[in-house]
């Protein structure tokens, strides 16, 4: 697996992965599309960053992350998704490893992730927990009744370079 900053041409494959994820819908895809466009058309605002994961010549997953502007060196993981056929082969871990690495290189102090308590997010929670993220907060019924918000966080170690 190779994880590199996304290129403008990756957008179509990224939206395809989202729409076929079994989790996200067209509204989610439109939101990612907007964030992707913003990342490329207003780079000076440094809102969102995208990474693409490649297996050979196939784009198999992506992550979107960024610095949370109202904080001191806190970064958010906004999206991570791997194509159904490629799951459980290390792409999710490779993407999140690279997000942490890049955030730490820019003096990132903390990474925060929002996710859901429901069954279909079991793989996501498994990924975060396996990578040392701690469930720091729960907001009951946040997304819907019976669908809690789980907030995961992890401190990053950064070095002067
Ligand atoms: C979450 C997701 C990105 C994980 O990607 P992936 O490439 O399959 O994950 P990896 O192969 O790197 O797995 C890394 C670790 O995560 C955990 N994990 C992954 N899938 C899991 C599952 N189905 N159940 C439990 N733990 C799981 C395991 O600890 C795994 O390590 P292991 O395979 O050595 O046991 C992927 O399942 C996905 O795209 N899901 C749909 C989108 C989604 O939920 N995004 C997150 C929204 S908050």
Commentary on this structure:
By secondary structure, the chain is of the alpha+beta class. It has one domain (2-155): Gcn5-related N-acetyltransferase (GNAT) (Aminopeptidase), CATH 3.40.630.30. Helix content is 30%, strand content 35%. The chain contains 4 helices and 7 strands; from the N terminus they run βααβββαβαββ. Strands 1-2-3-4-5-7-6 form a 7-stranded mixed sheet, sandwiched between helices. β3 (58-67) and β4 (74-82) form a beta hairpin. α1 (11-19) runs antiparallel to α2 (26-41). The two termini are 27 Å apart. The structure holds coenzyme A. Residues 21, 23, 80-82, 87-93, 115, 121-124, 126-127, 130 line the site of coenzyme A.
Which SSEs are present, and which pair or pack?
Elements: E1 2-5, H1 11-19, H2 26-41, E2 49-55, E3 58-67, E4 74-82, H3 91-105, E5 110-116, H4 122-130, E6 134-144, E7 147-155
Parallel strand pairs: 4-5
Antiparallel strand pairs: 1-2, 2-3, 3-4, 5-7, 6-7
Helix pairs in contact: 1-2
Bound molecules: coenzyme A.
Coenzyme A is lined by residues 21, 23, 80-82, 87-93, 115, 121-124, 126-127, 130.
């Amino acid at each position: 697996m190779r994880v590199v900053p996304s290129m403008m041409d990756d957008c179509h494959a990224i939206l395809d992965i989202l729409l076929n994820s079994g989790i996200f819908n067209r509204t989610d895809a439109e939101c990612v599309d907007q964030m992707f466009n913003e990342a490329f058309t207003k780079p000076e605002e440094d809102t969102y960053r995208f990474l693409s994961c490649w297996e050979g010549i196939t784009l198999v997953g992506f992550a979107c992350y960024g610095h949370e502007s109202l904080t001191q060196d806190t970064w958010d993981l906004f999206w991570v998704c791997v194509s159904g056929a490629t799951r459980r082969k290390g792409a999710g871990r490779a993407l999140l490893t690279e997000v942490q690495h890049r955030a730490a290189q820019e003096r990132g102090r903390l990474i925060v992730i929002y996710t859901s308590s429901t069954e279909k997010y079991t793989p996501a929670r498994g990924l975060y927990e396996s990578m040392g993220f701690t469930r720091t907060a729960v907001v009951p019924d946040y997304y819907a009744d019976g669908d809690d918000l789980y907030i995961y966080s992890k401190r990053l170690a950064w070095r002067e370079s």
